[in-house]
C-alpha cells in the first residue's frame, strides 16, 4: 500500500521505479519463449538442397495448395511422405520427381 496525496492509503499496485523492469520481457512473453526453445539441428546441406529442389518442382507442377498436400501427405505408391523421401536420399528425390512428372502428364495441374 502507498499513501496518496490526501493522506489516505491506496491499494492499487505501484509500477516499479526502474526503466529496466519496464523494458525487460516477462517470463511469459514470446521473446522468452523462443529463447528457451531448444534449436532443432539444421539439415545437412545436401538434404536442404534436395528439399528445396523437390519443393520448387512440386509448386511449379501442382500449384501451391496441391504441392503442400502432396509433399506432406502419405503417398502409398512411394512408400511414405514425399518430402521426407526426397530429403533423405537422392533415390527418394528421383522417385518423388518421377511421380510429380507422372502427375503433371496426367493433367493434375492447377486450374
Mean pLDDT: 81
**Model regions low in confidence, pLDDT < 50 over at least 5 residues:** none
How many DSSP E strands?
2
- Please tell me what the overall shape is: elongated
- Strands of the largest sheet, in order across it? 1-2
Indicate the topology.
Layout: E1 2-3, E2 9-10, H1 19-23, H2 30-36, H3 45-62, H4 64-72, H5 82-88, H6 90-105
Antiparallel strand pairs: 1-2
Describe this structure in words.
This protein is mostly helical. The protein has a domain of 61 residues. It is 56% helix and 4% strand. It contains 6 helices and 2 strands. It has a two-stranded antiparallel sheet. The longest helix has 18 residues. The protein is elongated. The protein starts with a strand and ends in a 6-residue tail after the last helix. The mean pLDDT is 81.
Structure summarized in a few sentences:
By secondary structure, the chain is mainly α. Helix content is 56%, strand content 4%. It has a two-stranded antiparallel ribbon.
Which features characterize this protein?
111 residues, mainly alpha, two-stranded antiparallel ribbon, 2 strands, 4% strand, elongated
Amino acid at each position: 500500500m502507498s499513501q496518496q496525496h490526501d493522506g489516505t492509503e491506496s491499494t492499487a499496485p505501484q509500477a516499479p521505479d526502474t526503466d529496466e523492469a519496464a523494458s525487460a520481457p516477462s517470463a511469459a512473453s514470446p521473446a522468452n519463449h523462443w529463447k528457451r526453445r531448444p534449436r532443432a539441428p539444421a539439415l545437412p546441406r545436401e538434404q536442404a538442397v534436395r528439399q528445396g529442389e523437390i519443393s520448387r518442382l512440386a509448386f511449379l507442377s501442382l500449384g501451391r495448395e496441391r504441392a503442400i498436400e502432396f509433399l506432406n501427405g502419405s503417398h502409398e505408391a512411394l512408400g511414405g511422405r514425399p518430402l521426407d523421401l526426397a530429403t533423405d536420399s537422392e533415390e527418394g528425390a528421383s522417385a518423388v520427381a518421377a511421380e510429380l512428372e507422372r502427375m503433371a502428364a496426367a493433367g493434375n495441374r492447377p486450374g
